Structure formats: C-alpha cells, structure tokens
Amino acid sequence: MTDTTTTSTPTPTARITREDVLAALGDTDPNRTNASAIRAILGRGGNTTIQKLLDEIRAERAAPAVALDTAAPPAAPTALVDAIWSAAWSHAQTLTFARLDRTAAERDQLAASLEVLTRDHEALLADVDELREALAKSEESLAEQIESEGVKLDAVGEHVQQLSAHLALAQAETAALKQQLEQAAELARRDAELKDAAHQRDREHLLDQVAELKALLYSSASASAPGSAQAPRKR
To answer: Which of 34, 53, 100, 146 would staple 21 via disulfide (CB 3.0–4.6 Å)?
Structure first.
C-alpha cells in the first residue's frame, strides 16, 4: 500500500514591521495595549521586536505638534547688510590686490627664469653645433683611417695568401719527403731481410760443409785404424 500523505513545508515567518503593528492597533490607543496583545492579533513575531515598534509609535503620538508660523518674515536690517557688504568688499579687494601682487611677482620671476633658460638654450645650441662640426671632422678622419687601413689590410691579405701558398708548397714537399722516407725505410727493411736470408743460407751451407768434413774425417780415421776391415771391391 502506497503512502500518499504529503508533508507541508513550513514557510519562514516574515519579519514584523511598523506597518504590521499599526494595522494591528487600528484605532486603539498604543498606551492601552501591549506587545503580547499585538502578537496575539498578528499571530507571529517576537515580543521584543513588537515592543520596540510599539514604543516608537507611542513616542511619536506623545510628541506635541509644532505649529508653523505663516506670518511674513521681517525685513532685513539695511544698515547691517550694508556693513557686512562693505566689509566683505574691502576684504575681497584686499585679497584681490594681494593676489595681483603675488601674480606680478611670479610673472617677473617666470620672465627672469625664461630669460635664463633662453640663454642656456642658445648656449646648448652652440655646443650642439660645435659637437656636430667635431663629429663631422671625426667621421672624415675615421674614413681616411679606414681607407688607409683598408690598403694595409689588402697588403696583409696578399702577404697572407703568399704565406698560405708557401705553406701549402712546404706541406706538399713534406708529404713527398715523408713518402720517400717511407719507401726508403721499406727498401732498407727488405734489403735487411734479404741479407738475413742470405746469411742464413750461407750459415746453413757452411754447417753442411762442416758436417760433411766431419763425416769424411771420421771415415778416414776409421779406415786407417789397425784391424779395420777393407770393404770388398766391386768387380
């Protein structure tokens, strides 16, 4: 079974205002009621807030009404107005003349400063002209030096090229000489190997001859020894 009961969300209580308290009072004298009675009529609000608003309403209604005077204002005292106007005019004149004096002094000071600045400006222009002339002379001198140094640099460049050519030739000759030395070393190595081989062959040949001589001597010694048998001759 499905529960269809809906719960209502409570709405927040609105704040009590002065208009709410006045509406609850109606024609009732605020001094003959209290905050609890007003709250019972409104059905909401706090006693403190209602009491505060009720006290304000009581104070306003207890204050006596001020009657406005509708009579025409009295005429202004002419002598007093003239005296004030005269004093104000004199003071204004004094301030104006003082301001004019200060302005004139400031103008004279500015004129003197302008004259000094004008002289300084003319002196600076003269210095600038001198600097321009000096700069032009320096540029001409520098151009001449650059041209002269350019000629020197050309000569140095040619000398460097010549040295480079000599260096390349020397390197080529060195490479050729190195190759010749390597070839000579190779030939010397081969000649030494050939000589060693020849010496080895001569040594071996001599050793063979010595061995043959030893064998011959041994045979001769054996044949001449007593009691040695002679080998039969072939027929």
So the answer is: 53
Sign of the Cα torsion 89, 92, 93, 94 reads positive
Domain ranges across the chain:
13-63
DSSP label at 28? Answer: S
Amino acid identity at 186: E
C-beta atoms surrounding 39 within 10 Å: 19
Are 47 and 36 contacting, i.e. CB atoms less than 8 angstroms apart? yes
pLDDT in tens, 121-164: 888 888 888 888 888 888 888 888 888 777 777 877 888 888 88
Helices of type H across the chain: 18-25, 35-42, 47-62, 78-223
Q: Which amino acid is at 134?
A: A
Radius of gyration, CA atoms only, the chain = 72
Using CA atoms, how far residue 29 sits from 36, 100, 154, 176, 233, in Å, is 15, 70, 122, 139, 193
Question: pLDDT tens digits for 11-58?
Answer: 446 789 999 999 999 988 989 999 999 999 999 888 999 999 999 999
Question: For residue 226, what is the DSSP state?
Answer: T
Please state, in angstroms and rounded to a whole number, the distance separating the CA atoms of residues 134 and 127. Answer: 10
Task: State the DSSP code for 229.
Answer: P
- Residues 174-214 pLDDT 10s: 888 888 888 888 988 888 889 888 888 888 888 888 888 88
